[in-house]
Amino acid sequence: MRAVRLIALLSMLVLVAGAGTGLSAPAQEIVFTSNQFTPVEEQEWARNTLLARFTQETGIGVRFITEAEGPYVDRLIAEARAGRGTIDVTGTLHGIFPVFLAANALRDMAPTLTQLDARPDRSFFRDFVAAARMENTTAFVPWMQATYLIVAHKDAMRYFPSGRNPNAMTYDDLLQWGENIRGETGQRRVGFPVGPRGLYGRFLHGYIYPSFTGAQVRRFKSPEAVEMWRYLRRLWGVTHPSSFTYEFMSEPLLRGEVLVAWDHVARILPALRQRPTDFVVLPSPAGPKGRSFISVVVGLAIPRTAPNPELGARLIEFLTRPSTQVLTLQGVGFFPVSPEAGATVPAGALKVMADGVGAQSGARDARTALLPVGLGARTGEFVPLYVNTFTRIAVRGEDIQRVLNEEGAKLEELYRATNAPCTPPDPPQRPCKPD
C-alpha cells in the first residue's frame, strides 16, 4: 500500500510540475520524414527551432525522422506497398520523387500548390513549379533550394563592359570582363573550381551547355555545342591558371588571387561572411538559349497513405511561408524558393547571397537545370564525361567535333544502359540520347 501511495504521490507531483511550467503533450502528432537535415546539429535545429514553432502555433506535434537516402526511401515505399502508413509529410530532393511516383506512393500535390500560390504572401519561382510536374502529376511543393552563382570583388566592377548590366550578364559580357581585367592588370583573374574536389563539372553540364544548346545531354554533339566549346577555349584564356587547384572559391577570393569567381553558394558564403561589404553576388551568365543554372530543389509532399493529410498540409503551409524560409536560410543555409521570402532576409552576408539567388531564379530568361536522375550506380560517370571533354578540348586543344563524337558515344551508352530519362531543361526522352 505504501508503494501504491508513493506512486500516486509522484504522479500528482509530475502533473503539478507540468501545470506550473505550462508543459503539456500536443493533442495531435504528425510524422515528417526527410533525407535532409541529417547532421546532428541540423537535426537539433529542425526539432527545437523550426518545428517547435509550428507546434507552438498550432498545438500539433511533429515527430521528425531524418535518415540517409536508402532507409528514407525504403520506409516510404514500404508503407505505400502495405497500403497503410504513418508518414504525413515527406521532404526530399527533386531527383528522388520519380522513385516515389513509380511506386505510386504520393498524392497529387497540385491542389495544395495551387492554394499556396494563390496566397497574397507568397509565390514560387515558375521554373520550380514546372520542375514539380512529373508524369502528369504535381509531385511536390517547392521548399528549399541551393545553387551556384558568380561572386566578384567590388573593385572588379570597374572592368565590367561599359553600358552593360551585370545583373543581366551574358557569356559575352563575362569573356569581355575577363579580357578587360587581363588587359588592365596583366593577369588572368577569373576563377573556377577545377581542382580534384571542385564542382567545375556542374558549370559545364548545367550552366554553359544548356545556355548555348538548350540541353544538358540531348545537344551534346550539336553545332551549337561546337560553338560553345570554341567560346570556352577563349574563356579559359582569361581564367586564373591556378584554377586547376581550386576547390572552394571563397579562399582565392579572400586572398585576392581572383576577382571574379563561380561556385556553389555554400563554398562562396565563407568569403561573404568574413567581408560582406567587399563583394557583389551576380546571376550566372546567359547564352543564346537563355540563362541556365542548376538548382538543387528540395520539395514537400504528402504520401498516398498519410493518416493525417489535412494536418500535413498545414505543416507544408508553415514551412513555405516567407518568414519560415528566411528562418531556414539562417539556420541551415538553404535558400528561399519564393521572391517574397528573399525580400525579407536581414542585411548581411546571407542577404547579399539571397539577393543573387533570387535574381538568378527570377530572371525572365531563367532555365533551371536539374541534376541527372535514373543513372543509379553509374551516376558517378556523368560529370567526369564533361570534365574529360573540357580537358581534351580547352586544355589539350584536340579537335572539337572528334572529341564530342567520342565522348558523346560514352554518354549515349551510359543512358542506354540505364534507360535514364532526360532532365530539364532537356526535352523529355527515355533513354536520353545525345544528338
Question: Can you walk through the features of this model?
Answer:
- By secondary structure, the chain is α/β, with parallel strands linked by helices.
- The chain has 2 domains: 23-146 and 297-368, 3-Layer(aba) Sandwich (D-Maltodextrin-Binding Protein, domain 2), CATH 3.40.190; 147-294 and 369-418, Periplasmic binding protein-like II (D-Maltodextrin-Binding Protein, domain 2, 3-Layer(aba) Sandwich), CATH 3.40.190.10.
- Helix content is 47%, strand content 14%.
- It has helices spanning 2-21, 40-58, 69-82, 97-102, 110-117, 126-132, 171-185, 200-213, 223-236, 250-255, 265-274, 309-319, 322-332, 339-342, 349-361, 382-395, 400-418, and strands at 28-34, 60-66, 89-93, 133-134, 137-138, 141-153, 190-191, 260-264, 279-282, 291-301, 366-369.
- The strands form 2 sheets. Strands 1, 2, 3, 6, 7, 8, 9, 10 and 11 form a 9-stranded mixed sheet that branches. A two-stranded antiparallel sheet has the order 4-5.
- A hairpin with a 2-residue loop joins β4 and β5.
- α8 packs across α16 and α11 packs antiparallel against α15.
- The longest helix is centred in the N-terminal third of the chain and has 20 residues, at 2-21.
- The termini are far apart.
- Mean pLDDT is 91; it is low at 1-23.
